[in-house]
Amino acid sequence: MEFEEQKALICLAQKQDWCDAAAACGVSVNALKALIDSLEQHYRQAIVEPGDPFQGFTPQGARILNWARDYCLQVSEVQQQFGDASRQTLVAELLERRSVSPKRLCAPGPSPQDLRWMAQAGLHAPDHGGLHPWRLLEFRPEQRQALADAFEAEKRRRDPLSSDEDIQRAREHAIRPPMLLAFIVSPQSKTQVPVREQWLAAGAAIGNVLNAAHQLGFGAIVLSGERCFDAGLCAELGVQPHEFLAGFISLGSVAQVPPARGEKDPEAVISCWTPMARTVDLTKAATANHLQSVAPTPRAAS
Ligand SMILES: Cc1cc2nc3c(=O)[nH]c(=O)nc-3n(C[C@H](O)[C@H](O)[C@H](O)COP(=O)(O)O)c2cc1C
Questions:
Q1: CA–CA distance, 301 with 246 (Å, rounded to integer)
Q2: Ligand 1 center to 205 CA (angstroms)
Q3: Whose CA is nearest to atom 25 of ligand 1?
Q4: Which positions of the chain have pLDDT values less than 50?
């Protein structure tokens, strides 16, 4: 049975009317009847009861109709699976991104042009008001020893009993990665965009930077550690009083692929809203719980 014939049967069963079924199939009534005729000749059985208007299916016709429905269902399931699989490839790169620890990175790191593309990807992240409340600070190879000195000083400040090994490790954090960036969150106060949205924009940007690095074929990881909270180190790096040193991004070629990890479950983060019963006093609920903590702040027009 041809697909057109199956479709004609199914439309006729749904509409129970020659004209409506023909319209649903996108053919003329005569063409629809010709399709049913050709099926009747093929099976040498009457498929529809004689008469006009449409009188229903014969028992044999009903069996053929059921078969056609099953077949179409299976075909559409297979098409759906193929469709899903080919759509999944559109996000495959994103789903494969994972952090690569500095120990698994090697030269070469990203080129200056790669860095510009990664920054551009960051700038294409959602950003209320287009404030780009973040910036990247690059530590070029010739500055790494000075950075290692700063890391060492911070470690000694934080832990006066640190061993030679601890100090060596702190210095290596500055020297090892082929490319090293600081990611600085730089919220703006002279704007109506709430600070929490600026933080989210910065978070989205860091995600885009990491995804761009991955798509360019590099491994990357963001690490903060306690040194990011050290006022002395922040001052030495030029982090302004209103800014935050969110972390250091290490980048390079992947020398060693990190161990496999399991699939992430999208259902863990997706839920459907169910409206609250109208009897709940929303004002009281808001005062009592979290709505209080997200009380509206002046908002800029979007
Ligand atoms: C701003 C920021 C700071 C982070 N700091 C640390 C850190 O100090 N130590 C750590 O183990 N992971 C830290 N992470 C998490 C890692 O970068 C990484 O995302 C995590 O190990 C999960 O690996 P995945 O990215 O492959 O899922 C930080 C992530 C972000 C976004």
A1: 28
A2: 15
A3: 99
A4: 295-296, 299, 301-302
